[in-house]
Design goal:
The protein is an alpha/beta fold. It is built from twelve helices and 18 strands. Strands 8-7-6-9-12-17-18 form a seven-stranded mixed β-sheet, with helices on both faces. The longest helix has 41 residues. The relative contact order is 0.12. It binds 5-S-methyl-1-O-phosphono-5-thio-D-ribulose (MRU). The site of 5-S-methyl-1-O-phosphono-5-thio-D-ribulose (MRU) has 18 residues, from helix 2 and strand 11.
Length: 365
């Protein structure tokens, strides 16, 4: 998608130097555009943990490049043990998004047993292919979700109002996004859409990133406080909710950014369709009960106690809560499948239950 009219992906290999992976530093957006260089597995760990890059599909692809950089810099003679250790190390950078495990385990399967230049080339090929796969997934999610927006537009014949939470946009992926892909496709095909963007405390991925990328693509949108969605729904101002997912279980429970569950409850109460857009790389095929089985990341309470914005001196943080008060910072929550109208995947739309999911992905049975 575009920044300043120029097409970008969120991650790429430096031109003329395949030992450097470059990413957009998402900690600085929307105020500054900076490219961040990653040269080692430690740099990759830092970038994922500190959220230089974030969003489930992008975390996965970045971790694959982390494995590649590790192989490239490896000087020892037991590469298989080294790869297993590196995979565990990278997986520990953020626990909730299953794409991370999907990517590093896939890398391991592909590169294990290879050595030297063979291992490097196989690792590079795997990482580049995973990146392309995620672009294709997002593109197809966009096409599948477009049909929902089209249907609503045909019924109401005026602007389709879509509410989204956090950033499940192209910045969370490589291109197109998950939740935003159908919105971009609708906008490009001339359907009038307007997006209600939840600010998404504490890190404000909605206010900072979703608003930024929608603006760069010229999609009409309005940022709202996290608490406003229910009110908008009660007053007919939301036609459809689309969110992303960091991990979806086989029975359709969805882990996504904290606050998603409350939006699903409000949508359910107001009979508004609540869809989750996700690539199959975000499905955890091994678990069924999201609430008990998905690990929920707990982040630094300072993300709640302080707020970051643009001041006279540049990007700055200010304190929000009394010095003596404690803060708690759960990164994600789980929306039970019964509140989800459907899952928008690269293979089409299905119900949020095991039978429907496996119908789309029969090889996972
Ligand atoms: O903590 P983040 O910014 O990595 O969380 C990302 C999300 O929760 C997104 O909402 C998301 O849907 C998953 S990525 C498409």
């Amino acid at each position: 998608m575009k920044i300043n009219g120029k097409h970008f992906h969120t991650i790429w290999l430096k031109k003329d130097n395949t030992a450097i992976v470059q990413v957009i530093d998402q900690r600085k957006l929307p105020f500054q555009f900076e490219v961040f260089n990653l040269k080692s597995k430690e740099d990759i760990f830092f970038a994922i943990q500190e959220m230089v890059v974030r969003g489930a599909p992008l975390i996965g692809v970045t971790a694959a490049y982390g494995m590649y950089l590790a192989v490239l810099n490896y000087k020892g003679n037991d590469i298989d043990s080294f790869l297993i250790e590196t995979a565990e190390y990278l997986k520990s950078s953020r626990p909730t998004a299953v794409n991370l495990a999907f990517a590093v385990d896939g890398f391991l399967d592909e590169v294990k047993g290879k050595n030297g230049e063979n291992a490097i080339q196989a690792g590079l090929y795997f990482s580049e292919s995973l990146k392309q796969k995620e672009i294709d997934f997002s593109d197809k999610i966009g096409e599948a979700g477009l049909s929902l927006i089209k249907e609503i537009y045909q019924q109401k014949n005026s602007t389709v109002n879509i509410l989204t939470h956090c950033n499940a946009g192209w910045l969370a992926c490589i291109d197109w996004g998950t939740a935003t892909a159908p919105i971009y496709k609708a906008h490009h095909s001339g359907i009038p859409v307007h997006v209600w963007v939840d600010e998404t405390r504490p890190r404000n991925q909605g206010a900072r990133l979703t608003a930024f990328e929608l603006g760069e693509e010229g999609v009409p949108h309005t940022v709202i406080p996290d608490n406003a969605g229910g009110h908008l729904m009660q007053h007919g101002m939301v036609d459809l909710v689309i969110v992303g997912s960091d991990r979806t279980t086989l029975n359709g429970d969805v882990a996504n950014k904290i606050g998603t569950y409350l939006k699903a409850l409000a949508a359910f109460d107001n009979n508004i369709p609540f869809y989750v857009a996700l690539p199959s790389s975000s499905i955890d095929w091994k678990i069924e009960d999201g609430i008990t089985e998905i690990p929920i990341e707990e982040r630094n309470p300072d993300e709640v106690a302080l707020i970051e914005g643009l001041g006279k001196e540049g990007i700055t943080k200010v304190r929000l809560i009394p010095e003596r008060s404690k803060a708690k910072n759960f990164g994600f929550d789980v929306t039970p499948a019964r509140l989800v109208s459907g899952l928008i995947t690269e293979r089409g739309i299905c119900k949020a239950n095991k039978t429907s999911i496996l119908k789309l992905f029969p090889k996972k049975k």
